[in-house]
Every structure is written in structure tokens, then in C-alpha cells.
Design brief:
Layout: H1 2-29, E1 33-35, E2 37-38, E3 41-57, E4 60-64, E5 70-75, E6 82-83, E7 88-92, H2 95-128, H3 136-168, E8 171-173, E9 178-183, E10 190-191, E11 196-202, E12 206-213, E13 225-229, E14 235-247, E15 253-259, E16 271-287, E17 292-294, E18 297-303, E19 309-313, E20 315-320, E21 323-328, E22 336-337, E23 350-352
Parallel strand pairs: 1-23
Antiparallel strand pairs: 2-22, 3-12, 3-16, 4-11, 5-7, 5-10, 6-9, 7-8, 9-11, 12-15, 13-14, 13-16, 14-15, 16-21, 17-18, 18-19, 20-21
Helix pairs in contact: 2-3
Length: about 350
């Protein structure tokens, strides 16, 4: 009777040991993740030079008063105003200038009368000179009076031109088309010569003054395309306008001046980054979502026929439109996990999603 009991006990122990092993094997064989695969694509991408710098005016104009002692009576524009060349920006008081102008006009009239009288005397002296009716001394005096009156009239007319210029200077105008960026003109203020009233961006042209490493300078030339990372992930297209002639001895960097297209009006004073595009070259690319960063190193997960993934260390390069260049680590035949690599470990079993 004891023998069957022993057999049952042995069977029970065997089953207890066998089923956990089967469960462990089943768990081990279960896929860790369902993934989609892709193969690296061959693209023709331009080589790029990284750069960073400030958005600044192409040229800035200072609008100032050319006269002094006059009061501002009208301010016709403000910060942000778009103005055209010759447009009136500020008017100054004209009462004193107009009074001086009228006074000078009277002085010119007096000088003309004096010249007319001196000219008549000189003409009579020249007519009587052969007859000897006038002494030589008197003739010289009349001729000298004529010259003096002529010079006096010229002086008064020059002074009149000066008063007209002062009158014109009471109307301060824009020196070029542009955008007003700062204003210090206040209604009622008395200005002096040279007082700055406005700053203006000429022709509303903004440029990017990008700093680049000096080692790239031999390969950068005017006309190259530039992509600037603007605010809110907005990409700004530009062209190299000028390559700076000097290199900083402190940073070994040079400034490249990048013209922005017409119609682009980003704010000045922003510090932005971007890339200058050089010649086009082949690039082996994968989606950016395939890259896994661990401890500062870039990895990809690839898979073979056994549906187990292998973690591969890669070196990345250029980036464009959601793709990244793989410089080393894989070839075109590799099957790369598109996303989800952060949840995988080396040699994990995965399920391959069917392509739609």
C-alpha cells in the first residue's frame, strides 16, 4: 500500500518542478515589444556649417536735429512706424526763424539798393574818366564803392540762404525708407544741434550676424544658402551677403553677414542658431525617433531573422526634416527599429509589426 503513495508523491513533485519551468520559458519567449522596422535611406544633403549670432539691422540711421534753441511742436511718428524717405517726422517752432528770415530779406533789399547806387556812380565815373571832369581819386572811390556794394549784396544773400536752411531744418524728415526703432523726441522739448530724435532701420532690412569657426572660412562664400532656427521652431531662409574680413584673436571665430529675404521682419536683438549650407553630399539617414541616447552616447536597435534586437552604437551627423545622418555603425542593409528603443535591451525578443 505504501508503493502507490510514493508514486503519487513523486509525480506531484515532478509536476511542481516542471510547470514553473514551462511558465518561465513561456515568459522568456514572450516578445518585449511590437516594433516597426525600416532600412536606412540614402539622401543627398548639403554639408552644413553650424553658426550662431544676433539678428541686427542691416544699417541703422540716426535722425537728429540740425538746429538748436527751437521747440518741438509736432511729433508725427512713433516706435514701430514704417516711414518713407522725405516723410515729415517732427516739426519745430518757426516763429523766430521766420522773423530772422524777413529781417534778412530786408537786408538783401537794402544791399541791392546800395549796389544800384554804387553801380550808377561807377558807370558815370567810367564815362567821365576820359574828359578829366573827375579826379582820379574820385573815380577810384566810386569803383571801389561798386565792388564793396557787390560783395555786401553777396554776403547778405548768403545770409538769406542760411535763414532759408534754418527754416527748412524746422521740418525734420526721414533720410531713407525704414522702420522707426526708438524715439527720444518729446512734444514741447527744446532741442539743440545734434540731439538724437529717432533711430531707424534702413529699408526695414534685418540681417543675421553669424559667428562661425575660422576653419570653415575658405569654404564659405557669398550667395550660399542659410537656414536659421527662428522663434517657435520657424525656419528662416537666408543668403550669405558678406564674409567678415577679420577673425577674432580671442575666439578664433569670424562673422558671416546673412541677408534675410524681403518680407521677413524678425525682431532685432534675438540670439539665434542656424546652419550655412555648403556643397551637397550623400547621407545615410534614419528617422530621428530611432536614436536612443544613453550616457551621452547614440544607439540604434537593429534586428535579424531571429527577431531579437541588437543595440548598436552609432555616430550621428546632419539632421533635416525629422531625419538624422548616420556616419558610422550601420549600413544600408540594416533593419532598424523606428521607435520604442528606450524600452528595449540588448538581445530582447520583439514582434515585427506588419506593414500596411
Amino acid at each position: 500500500m505504501r508503493r502507490p503513495s510514493r508514486l503519487w508523491a513523486a509525480a506531484f513533485v515532478t509536476a511542481a518542478l516542471f510547470f514553473p519551468l514551462r511558465n518561465a520559458a513561456a515568459e522568456q519567449a514572450a516578445p518585449a515589444l511590437t516594433v516597426s522596422l525600416t532600412t536606412p535611406a540614402q539622401r543627398d544633403w548639403p554639408e552644413t556649417v553650424p553658426a550662431s549670432g544676433w539678428l541686427k539691422p542691416w544699417q541703422e540711421a540716426v535722425i537728429a536735429s540740425e538746429t538748436s534753441g527751437l521747440r518741438i511742436t509736432d511729433v508725427l511718428v512713433d516706435v514701430g512706424s514704417v516711414v518713407t524717405k522725405g516723410q515729415t517726422l517732427v516739426r519745430l517752432s518757426q516763429e523766430n526763424v521766420l522773423a530772422d528770415l524777413r529781417k534778412q530779406e530786408a537786408a538783401v533789399a537794402t544791399a541791392k539798393a546800395s549796389l544800384s547806387k554804387a553801380k550808377a556812380n561807377a558807370d558815370r565815373a567810367r564815362q567821365l574818366q576820359p574828359s578829366g571832369a573827375l579826379s582820379d581819386e574820385k573815380i577810384v572811390e566810386y569803383l571801389a564803392d561798386e565792388q564793396t556794394a557787390t560783395a555786401s549784396l553777396a554776403s547778405e544773400e548768403a545770409a538769406l540762404d542760411g535763414e532759408k536752411i534754418k527754416l527748412a531744418q524746422t521740418t525734420i524728415t526721414a533720410v531713407d525708407d525704414g522702420l522707426i526703432t526708438s524715439r527720444s523726441a518729446d512734444l514741447g522739448a527744446v532741442v539743440s544741434a545734434g540731439t538724437e530724435l529717432f533711430h531707424m532701420v534702413r529699408q526695414q532690412r534685418i540681417e543675421w550676424q553669424a559667428e562661425v569657426s575660422a576653419r570653415y572660412l575658405p569654404r564659405i562664400s557669398e550667395g550660399l544658402s542659410v537656414r536659421i532656427d527662428g522663434a517657435d521652431d520657424h525656419v528662416i531662409e537666408g543668403k550669405v551677403r558678406l564674409v567678415g574680413p577679420s577673425v577674432s584673436t580671442d575666439t578664433s571665430r569670424a562673422i558671416v553677414y546673412v541677408a534675410l529675404p524681403a518680407g521677413m521682419r524678425p525682431r532685432t536683438g534675438l540670439y539665434v542658431t542656424g546652419n550655412i549650407e555648403l556643397q551637397t553630399s550623400p547621407a545615410l539617414t534614419v528617422p530621428e525617433t530611432a536614436i536612443v541616447f544613453r550616457d551621452g552616447i547614440s544607439y540604434l536597435f537593429t534586428t535579424g531573422e531571429d527577431q531579437r534586437v541588437q543595440r548598436v552604437r552609432v555616430e550621428t551627423g546632419r539632421r533635416n526634416n525629422g531625419e538624422v545622418e548616420i556616419v558610422s555603425g550601420i549600413d544600408r542593409s540594416s533593419k532598424v527599429v523606428i521607435s520604442g528603443g528606450a524600452f528595449l535591451s540588448d538581445n530582447d525578443l520583439v514582434k515585427i509589426a506588419e506593414k500596411n
